[in-house]
Amino acid sequence: MKTSTEILSQKTKKHQSLNYRDSKWGYLFIMPMLLGFLIATVFPIIATFAYSMTNKNMMSRTTDFIWLENYIKLFSDKTFKNTLVQTLQFTLLLLPTNLILTLALATLLKDKFKGCGFFRTAVFTPVVTSVVVWGVLWKYIFQSDNGLINAVLRMVGITGPQWLMNVDLAIPVSVFVTLVKGLGMNMIIFIGAMLEVPRDYYEASSLDGATKIKQFFYITLPNIAPSIFLVLILTTIGSLKVFGQIKALTEGGPGTSSYVMVYYIYQTAFKNYKFGYASAISVILFLMIVALTLLQWTMRKRWVYYED
Amino acid sequence: MKIEQMTSKQLKSRKQMKKFLKYLVCILVAAVMLFPMYWLFTTSFKTATNVAKYPPQWWPNPWTLANYKELFMKRPFIKYLWNSIYVAVLMTGGVILFSSLAGYAFAKIKFKGNNILFLIILCGMMMPIEVTIIPIYTALSGLKLADSHVGLIVAPMFGYCGAFGTFLMRQYFLTVPTELIEAGKIDGASQPLIFVKILLPMAISSISTLVIFSFLQSWNDYLLPLVLLSDSNKFTLPLGLSLLSNEDGMKWELVMAAATFSTVPILAVFYMCQQKFMESLSMSGLKG
Amino acid sequence: MKKLSCVLLALAMSFSLLAGCSGNSQKEASSQNSAENSSESSSAKAGETTELKIAIWGDEARAAAYKETLAPFCEANNCTVSIDLIPIGDYFDKLASQLGAGTAPDVFWLADAKEAPFIQGDWCVNLREKLESDPDYHLEDFYEDAINSTDYGDGGIYGVPFSFGARGIFYNKTLFEEAGVKTPQECVADGTWTYETMFDLTKQIHEYDSTKIGVKLWCVGQITNGVQNFADILSAYGANLLNEDSTEFILDSEKGLAVTKMVYDAIYTTGGHAKPGDDTAFVSGNVAMARETYSYMKSMANGDIEFEWDVVPQPYGGEGKNGKLYTGYAYWCANASSKQADLAAELVKYITTSENLLAWCSTFMSPRTSVMESDKIINLGDGYPSADKVKAAFVDSIEERGLFTYRGTSQWTLIQTVVEQNYEMIWAGAVSIEDGVAQMKEDVTALLD
């Protein structure tokens, strides 16, 4: 007869060896992704950091280290400052509207009803089109003279503004186009999460007389919190890195009033051949995104509760 | 008796009103989303002169298949289509495999450096590809792999898509109760077996999302193929589309046709899949 | 953790070394090239088949056509040719990144004053000796300004121009007749074809039907090119964006501001000129007058156009016949850092002979006298305006008024961007014309060499 201590120590030993084996498996499982990641992503990032301290020009044969000169130049670069502000404007406009609208759409379309498949596909349609084609189509719609919107307005007697040639409208219009494109993807993430919330919760609460709105805020939202967090991070990163729409719609215009960080990076690297300087701007963007993501990451501990 | 009748009638009309509003909102939203697609689709069947007509032709008259004929017979769009398909499929397959493995490990397996390594992978989503493309291109051309599809498949697989996939799968696996895994372990199953037999089938909804996301990333990617590929035989669809403009401007009707057949098949697949996808979610009943 | 960071650091350093090395090896390669050139080309002719890579913009049909044109060259030199297509919007970006990585093609196109950094970076072979030494090539057949336009001070020819030309005004005859407005051709006939007249006709068309565009000074595909779009009208009034050798910004002269105001009024005050960003093509029948290139006639003739159209030369301005017309140039260049630089140069020479340029003249108007005086260039056949009209618009106008171009600078792409951005601020009504041009002066001057 084994004593309880012996049985316990046996179990602990098994548990310990399980843990050791676990570690092994853990490393093995992440090895391919990690290795590939190191080569395909980490190296280019480190290379970018390295290039940001050089004066590398796309077409020059020699490159010299100039250390922090690029960063010092950034301080007095007016375009850079404007770009920074405009990128933040874009993000601040996009983030809340995206979140609210996708939650609303997901709530609307999560239950099965006649035609729900059609509507879901409809909302997802813009996601499937390429950014460039989408941007070009909307550029046509927003054209000043004969674009669809101004043509319709003209029929009612209103002269529409130059949507894309207006310093105050360029960014909001770009946000709108980006919003419409991205709603579908986030919506299906939310629908997936919402459908996993057990029905009993809703049934129990409606027995207690809870309204749909109360149910939404007290049952749905807390239970899909990890997905909200996911979408929040993804949308933040995506909007800080926005590029394709701006290039297709406004090309950063009018003037530089819709310049965003990645567009400025692209212009500097590929049109002005100043790769070192562009790398420095990228590093700043990268650090910004890392900071914001870490912020959101630490905040998640407060409102997502089933991670350990 | 009267009050009850009135009340039930009121209830009925309120319900109908709600239903009507719901459909109205859905239709409005669908209209905004679908209108560009409608324009894309119909323009691809118009003749060149009718494309630029003002007021715009809402319904092509005459309908013509000339644009598609030109794309497939006079231009090598079949080749571009094939390239796009197999690059996207391979990339997506790789992402699913490697990110689900990694996501599971990060979520459930305790090992040293778990959190830090995960955060490093998360950071991979944050550097814009527009600038990392040059070091990638330099490295690949040094390895003589530049003008091939290898870069197109591997770079996103271990880059943005892989990082996103790992993040998504980790988020999902975090919601799987540990008891299930413990049960498997006590039964003597090894980690790979647990992974394949229990966890992967459960994660079907997240995997579907990842499939859609990765496939679209690869399908619509323009910058990576532009920088990495030189031989036009290796071009993917977005690149092939850009060849439809030259110094004389853009051939709208052809661009619309190419954009349409880049989009419509995927939409059809999504429409068919979303039913199954939503069904599998509502039946997962893990917590119900 | 510590181990990991050490490993990462080591790998990072090795990566950057790698990047640095590739830069150095190019320097060595190009200096070796000139020594090995002669031996390379002889070995190419000796027996092994070499492959030449060419980069152009365009589509597969154009690539196939060039392959055909080059077939005799390939046979004679025992080589094959592969043509890479680069989308025109990203052409220079991609070429620059290829040159930087050492994977650039042996032969490539350059254009639009953007060739300066490539030439000044020693990426193009100096073809002068090779071209001068062959009497059958007839170097003198080229327009002087054209062939010397890649000379940045050392008398070299770094690219052979194969495409140039003044734009003409295409107009929709049917629309003019409907509106009962005097046509540009009639104005030309009675000597009243000036910019003032043109804008007046614009106003009349706009009053007749406000949904029609009276005139479009920007060419298809160049809607956002403020440099090229206004070059002609500025020159017609004795103003310009930059001075002759691109060292000074001169748009802020009195005449320059007056012309800018004239265009602004045509867009916003009297109306009729296409708004910036408007992409309506002339083929749609919705545009009364459009300024387009010679090769645009091909697109017109090949589409099913339902209206009658015609071409006239560009209007005169205050300077009359002394107002030079603007042209850009596109060049064939040989890659100086290529291992087959000499063979590449031979190819450039072959493709730009009088015979071959004539073969392509319906697509590209070339600055060779033999091409410009040929019958082929004006007798284009059915669906095109008559030969005398084509001649008047595209050939005689050059003879009469002469051409000018902008001398490229090392940051030309950025100058183009900055000019357009400042024009946009004016169009957007965010600044007055004077302030807009003043800001443009500041921005451009900072970028001039």
Mean pLDDT of chain B, to the nearest integer, reads 82
Overall tally of structural domains of chain A? 2
> Biggest β-sheet of chain B: count, sense, barrel?
2 strands, antiparallel
Any idea what the shape of chain A is? flat
Plain-language structure description:
The complex is a heterotrimer of chains A (308), B (288) and C (449). Chain A is mainly α and 308 residues long. Chain A has two domains: 1-51; 68-303, Orthogonal Bundle (MetI-like fold). Chain A has helices at residues 4-51, 69-75, 78-109, 116-128, 131-141, 148-155, 170-194, 199-207, 212-223, 225-240, 244-249, 261-271, 275-303. Chain B has 14 helices and two strands. Chain B has a two-stranded antiparallel ribbon. In chain B, helix 3 (66-74) packs across helix 14, helix 4 crosses helix 8 and helix 11 (204-220) runs antiparallel to helix 14 (252-283). The two termini of chain B are 40 Å apart. In chain C, 47% of the residues lie in helices and 11% in strands. In chain C, the strands form three sheets. In chain C, strands 2-1-3-10-4 form a five-stranded mixed sheet. The A-C interface holds A 38, 42-43, 46-47, 49-51, 58-63, 139-140, 143-146, 162, 164-167, 251-257, 267, 270-273, 275 and C 8, 11-12, 15-16, 19-20, 23-24, 26-27, 30, 90, 92-93, 96-97, 99-100, 117-118, 121, 123, 211, 213, 224, 274-280, 286, 411, 413-414, 417, 420-422, 424-425, 427-430.
Summary keywords:
heterotrimer; A: 308 residues; MetI-like fold; 2 domains; C: D-Maltodextrin-Binding Protein, domain 2; D-Maltodextrin-Binding Protein, domain 2; disordered N terminus
Which secondary structure elements does this structure contain, and how are they paired or packed?
The complex is a heterotrimer of chains A (308), B (288) and C (449).
Chain A: H1 4-51, H2 69-75, H3 78-109, H4 116-128, H5 131-141, H6 148-155, H7 170-194, H8 199-207, H9 212-223, H10 225-240, H11 244-249, H12 261-271, H13 275-303
Helix pairs in contact in A: 1-13, 3-7, 3-10, 4-7, 10-13, 12-13
Chain B: H1 2-43, H2 48-51, H3 66-74, H4 77-108, H5 114-123, H6 129-142, H7 149-157, H8 160-174, H9 178-186, H10 191-202, H11 204-220, H12 223-228, H13 237-242, E1 245-246, E2 249-250, H14 252-283
Antiparallel strand pairs in B: 1-2
Helix pairs in contact in B: 1-14, 3-14, 4-7, 4-8, 4-11, 5-8, 8-11, 11-14
Chain C: H1 2-46, E1 50-56, H2 60-77, E2 79-85, H3 91-101, E3 107-111, H4 116-120, H5 128-132, H6 144-147, E4 160-163, E5 168-172, H7 173-179, H8 184-189, H9 195-208, E6 213-216, H10 226-229, H11 231-236, H12 254-269, E7 287-292, H13 296-302, E8 309-312, E9 325-326, E10 330-334, H14 341-351, H15 354-359, H16 369-372, H17 387-401, E11 403-404, H18 412-427, H19 433-445
Parallel strand pairs in C: 1-2, 1-3, 6-7, 9-11
Antiparallel strand pairs in C: 3-10, 4-10, 5-7, 5-8
Helix pairs in contact in C: 2-14, 18-19
